[in-house]
Design a protein that fits this description.
This protein is an alpha+beta fold and 156 residues long. The protein has helices at residues 2-10, 20-36, 48-54, 141-153, and strands spanning 43-44, 75-83, 86-95, 98-106, 117-118, 121-128, 131-137. The longest helix is centred in the N-terminal third of the chain and has 17 residues, at 20-36.
């Protein structure tokens, strides 16, 4: 896991503030890389009270972690991705046999109008309470929309 973390962090040497299309490309690359790893998460747990504290001391602010199992999106765990030299919390959810990577980017990154699909992976982004969320997966667009709606309406 450590080697995967170091490898993914070392692959990006871009500036901190990157355009949204580049951010989208990097997030898709992170998602694909996680699918190729032995485990797609650094901390594996369906318990939000295990996943959220794991990020303490690893990133500047703990992510919003919600349990979406009743909506059909169980939590798999979390990992740290590095985008533009910035370590980000990425939560991983499952929809049937597919994984959804949800990255939380601190305020200051332009969401713009992200592409809906890159290399066969669907993307969806939104901003809320000073955080920009990016969901990446190969699930169908309606499923990704349902995931975003469930996440946005859930209580942490």
């Amino acid at each position: 896991m450590f080697a995967c973390f170091i490898g993914s962090g070392g692959t990006w040497l871009a500036l901190h503030s990157v355009p949204s299309s580049t951010t989208a490309d990097m997030l898709v690359a992170s998602h694909v890389r996680s699918l190729m790893a032995a485990q797609p998460v650094d901390v594996g747990s369906s318990d939000q009270h295990t996943v959220k504290p794991w990020f303490n001391g690893r990133i500047t602010e703990a992510p919003r972690v919600v349990d979406l199992a009743t909506e059909g999106f169980p939590l798999v765990g979390g990992r740290i991705d590095v985008i533009g030299r910035t370590p980000l919390a990425t939560l991983v959810y499952r929809r049937r046999g597919h994984l959804i990577s949800l990255s939380e980017i601190p305020d200051g990154h332009d969401v713009g109008a992200p592409p809906r699909t890159i290399a066969g992976y669907n993307l969806l982004s939104w901003s809320e309470n000073g955080v920009t969320y990016w969901a990446v997966s190969d699930v169908a667009v309606p499923d990704l929309d349902a995931f975003a709606k469930a996440f946005r309406s859930a209580n942490p």
